[in-house]
Amino acid sequence: MADNSLDPTVPASGTGCVECLASPDGWWFHLRRCAACGHVGCCDSSPSQHASHHASDTGHPYVQSFEPGEDWFWSYPDSQFAEGPQLAEPTSHPADQAVPGPADRVPSNWQELLN
C-alpha cells in the first residue's frame, strides 16, 4: 500500500455506515472502513454500496472489513485482497450490533435486496 493511501492513526467514523445512518430508511449488510480517512460505509452486497462510492469519490483505494473477527483489506484499483497495517481502534462494529443493520431499519425481505 502506498503511504499516502492510508492513515493507520485515524479512528473509524462510527459504528455504522455514515450515509445509511443519515437516511431514514438506510440499512446495510456488512461494513467496510476506509484505510485513509476512517469513513465507515456499507459493502458492495448492500443496496447502496457506500464504501465503494466513497472510494470512487475520494480516490481512497483501500478498505478494511469492519466486521468483528475480520481484518482483511481490499484494494479497489486492483479488485483483490491486500495487506495493510493495524488500524486505530475500533477495528469493527460492536459484536452485539445487528447484522444486517441497523436492526430497526432492515426490511423483512432484505435477502432479496442484496446485490
UniProtKB/TrEMBL annotation:
Residues 76-115 are annotated as: Disordered. GO terms for molecular function: zinc ion binding. Residues 1-101 form the UBP-type domain. InterPro entries: Znf_RING/FYVE/PHD, Znf_UBP. Gene3D superfamilies: Zinc/RING finger domain, C3HC4 (zinc finger) (3.30.40.10). Pfam families: zf-UBP. This is UBP-type domain-containing protein. It comes from Gordonia aichiensis NBRC 108223.
